Amino acid sequence: MKEDQDPQLPSFDFKSFMVDKVNAVNQALDSAVPLRDPVKIHEAMRYSLLAGGKRVRPVLCLAACDLVGGKESMVMPAAYALEMIHTMSLVHDDLPCMDNDDLRRGKPTNHKVYGEDIAVLAGDALLAFSFEHIAVSTVGVTPDRIVRAIGELAKSIGAEGLAAGQVVDITSDGLTNVGLDHLEFIHVHKTAPLLEAAAVLGAILGGGHDEDVEKLRKFARNIGLLFQVVDDILDVTKSSKELGKTAGKDLVADKVTYPKLMGINKSKEFAEKLKSDALELLQGFDPEKSAPLIALANYIAYRQN
Amino acid sequence: MKEDQDPQLPSFDFKSFMVDKVNAVNQALDSAVPLRDPVKIHEAMRYSLLAGGKRVRPVLCLAACDLVGGKESMVMPAAYALEMIHTMSLVHDDLPCMDNDDLRRGKPTNHKVYGEDIAVLAGDALLAFSFEHIAVSTVGVTPDRIVRAIGELAKSIGAEGLAAGQVVDITSDGLTNVGLDHLEFIHVHKTAPLLEAAAVLGAILGGGHDEDVEKLRKFARNIGLLFQVVDDILDVTKSSKELGKTAGKDLVADKVTYPKLMGINKSKEFAEKLKSDALELLQGFDPEKSAPLIALANYIAYRQN
User: Fold this and answer.
1) B99 contacts in chain A (CB < 8 Å)
2) How does pLDDT run across B197-224, given as a tens digit for each residue?
3) What domain count does chain A have?
4) Cβ within 8 Å, pair A124-B98
5) Looking at the partner chain, which of B36, B157, B159 has a beta carbon nearest the beta carbon of A41?
6) A chain contacts of residue B37, beta-carbon cutoff 8 Å
7) Which of A36, A109, A199, B141 yields a CA-CA distance of 20 to 30 A from B257?
8) What is the pLDDT of residue B8?
């Protein structure tokens, strides 16, 4: 079943919605990181940033803002800042001293093209840029909400967010007695934090009430774990060409994954459960405005790469 | 001439002032990064963060805040956040793929103790932490000033700040036709940005007028370049033991430095000129409140490591 054929959503054209939003985000990213001096680092940043990712985090941020009644202009810098951070984490995770990956989004990884030194610095610069753009380019939002958004975003990246997930992931390689709790910790910290930040930033900057912010936080946590479970499934069921990145890496690295712990079928059932739990959290919102978020959850659940 | 014997400052006890401020900053850093789960990354962050640096950036930030009439509590999170960022840049610069340094602040570098993967992640987490702490822990400051401060800080780190300096530095190694302009670009971008951010954040968060913010910006740019010129001089005149880091590295790496381009004596004269230009910018401020900044400029000019 494809996301744009979901029987629950006859009237919502998810494909057009995504194309629209992804184009807007890509244009904003293109302007936000111009090819200026020193050229090499800007080139390296643009190489990974404009490599055609799925832009799930920016789109989630824009959709959450819309859900709480905000305008797109309030949240666009935060939306593309999320992609900068996501790209930073990919560039650093791909380094030889981490996952040592040669292929990403169907292209050679950043350090393969620009060298490890530039890849480290390009990542650092992207991380700093993300905060700069939210602080300097956000318009139509009160400063107290901008400060709150920056606090949430920063928390999602650091030693209790993305970095924590990656550390525990690295230090778990080859461990044999890893259980589901431990795996969930890794996954919740590796993918969910930025998705959570995306939804929460959209709601905060869009002017949402605290209650809505918290509902969207839970929704994002669910689809964050869903994203990772599906990633694990794709790693064992798809080829490198289909994925646009090296397939079967988890098996080679002896990584703990959901398919390894509970088998492919149970993993798919678990994904289904996470998806329906997420959708339940959207009940009570304007159905028309929640359509993109429902479609996004379906997209994550049923994506093929 | 030692900084605490400067004849212009008979009444200001710089040593006590520094001990006081450094203790306050170290205590704040110790609480800001507790040893929590996942332990390994927090341990790595604390290892480099609490390794006993000179804390020049935090002290400059506190002094700038005081100069414009602000309270220490307004600016403490920003002050220690600057040290987090400085530490991040040291940890990443020391990596084998960059400067490949084994010794820092008299101890083995972060990646030597925790591995390159953890060193990259600890740096990323410190960078994120710095923004989190400014956003979440700053008290007694209006949110618009916090947003402005975050924008300034972020700019100082990214592809027009620290990262730019490091990129141009790396790509200049072994070049033979590098002139003073090029060298100044590297130095201004490698050290000055964070010192500039320190002074500017102190002034902004302390409630300073725009005019004072800009005066302090220029002051910091001057002592930033001064800092780097003195660093170049120390690298060729001191031993590794005296410096607490590997000496003579610039020569080995065939790096362009001020002593190489203009000789030791002319480099010292240049440093003297930068110092007096910096001090001129402080005229017009309350002499008692500018004493720490004057002493700091002298300290940077005459430090021995």
Assistant:
1) none
2) 999 999 999 999 999 999 999 999 999 9
3) 1
4) no
5) B159
6) 164
7) A36
8) 53
Please tell me which residue of chain B has the smallest CA distance to A149.
B135
Question: Which pairing describes strands A107-108 and A103-104: parallel, antiparallel, or unpaired?
Answer: antiparallel
CATH number of the domain residue A275 falls in: 1.10.600.10
Model confidence pLDDT, tens digit, residues A168-224: 888 877 676 778 888 888 877 877 899 999 999 999 999 999 999 999 999 999 999
Q: Does any domain span residue B6? A: no
Candidates A150, A152, A182: best to mutate against B (most CBs of B within 10 A) is A150
Q: What is this model's ipTM?
A: 0.90
Q: Is A245 helix (H, G, I), strand (E, B) or coil?
A: coil
Residue of chain B nearest A45, judged by CA positions: B159
Q: Is residue B3 part of a domain?
A: no
Nearest CA in chain B to A119: B97
Q: Is B138 helix (H, G, I), strand (E, B) or coil?
A: coil
In a domain, A5, yes or no: no
* Structural domain boundaries, residue A30: 11-302
Chain A environment of B128 (Cβ under 8 Å): 127, 154-155, 157-158, 161, 163
Q: Is residue B4 part of a domain?
A: no
Q: Tell me if B134 sits within 8 A of B74, measured CB to CB.
A: no
Task: Find the mean pLDDT for residues B18-37.
Answer: 96
B138 exposure class (CB count in 10 Å sphere: 0-12, 13-18, 19+): buried
Q: Which residues are registered as beta bridge partners of B108?
A: B103
pLDDT tens figures, A111-157:
999 999 999 999 999 999 999 999 999 999 999 999 999 999 999 99
Q: How many percent of chain A have pLDDT more than 90? A: 69
